[in-house]
Amino acid sequence: MPYDFEHGSGTEADPYLIATEADLWGIFDVNSDDQPNFVGNYFRQTADITITQSVSTNILIRCVYDGNNHRISGLKTSLASLGTSTWKNSIFLNCTNEDLESWEYPTVFQWIFLEEEGVGENKLDNIQLLNSPGIYIFAGQNIVATNLIVKNSGGFAGGTILDSKISECYGENLAFTQQSRCSGAGAFCDVFGCSFENIVIRNVEYEDEYWLAGGMVGKTSYSNFKNCVVLGAKVIGEDSSGGFAGQIFGGTFEDCFALGVTVEVRPGLPNQPETWPTWHSGGFAGEIFANRSVGDPDYVPFVFRRCIVHGTADVDATAGGFAGAIWQEGGSFFEQCGAEVSVINTNENAGGFAGEIWGSLDSLEEGAVCKDCYALGDSVLSNLENAISNGGFVGVADKVIFERCFSKGLVSGGTNKGGFCGLGYDDIECIDCYYDSETSGQSDTSMGTPKTTAEMKTQSTFS
Fold it and tell me: Which of 60, 152, 255, 271 sits 20 to 30 Å CA-CA off 169?
């Protein structure tokens, strides 16, 4: 027999009323065939609820739950999986998710999906997650999430999210340490084909002991970000890390900022194979690709417009003020982007904007990779023993055009040093690009034009 609610009939006009812990668990009742008893019903919470036990919940199918701005405190396991459902107006406090299985995510909503592919949608609206260290709100796909607030907890999406729209969210005092090679660490861990708009997170600390870490997102593939800001972040990765994102595969980033960030990479995992690739780290992103990873579309370019990063990158990795390494293909570019990041590197290549930029065969026909961009960090320093190429703007570049870009950081260490570019391979063009010859300590003229500090501050210097 299904749970007998004391009040309501489960319709939109007369929802089942949830006033006790028993009522809450009752909505997940299943029949003898282990199928949900409540499908397509409406629920409304009428009192604060304190959880006293761990219960294995089922799936909520095509239902609407209105928390009515009441609290659910002390949740000990993931609350539910949602299938084409809406959950709104809830406040979750002091969640713990005890004894997670290896396949589980540390989330309030374990997995959200469409019961019938292409039919309906899932909605999360006006949900708060408070004082729940290491816990996130959700993982899943086809989600429209708005007005989410997370404080003193893990973050927003603790696993993979796909084809979702996230907007109007705020996070504060977020922290999580990922201890398995799962989905990276960040306020959103691993995203595919999603859009993000008007999101602010502040005072975050993310570490991944095996893979990627970013302040906003661990790994993002062909997703779009607009008006998203990280204010104050400490990010530590074992592979790649960035103040905004650990690893980026295509997508657009407009008016996004990572301010007051500290980025580190700590390679040297006990199980790391000898053929493990070079590590990368940057103030904004560790690695940026204009190609695909496993399961992605064949090709999605990256586009960055008006994105800024301030902070420090002190790493044992190829490092850059904006990005550690960039792989560019046709249609991908940076426009009006800047890095004010002090780069301290103990690995191979470093640059005030990027450690490495590798263009495609046709990139010169596509135009400049970096247009109207700057690197204003105080230094680009490298360990003298391991350093190869350092530059005020970029350490190593190949098949790339730079247009109207400039840098000023002190460049030291490395076999190859340049005020603007440390080492250029084939087809490098620097059009109206400049660097400060006094603050950089360099005077080369092959890539970028040296100017004194006074000249760099004089408008007539620049055509």
Answer: 60
> What CA–CA distance (Å, rounded) separates 215 from 250?
18
Contact 428, 459 (CB under 8 A): no
Q: Residue 210 corresponds to which tokens in the numbers above?
A: 């095996």
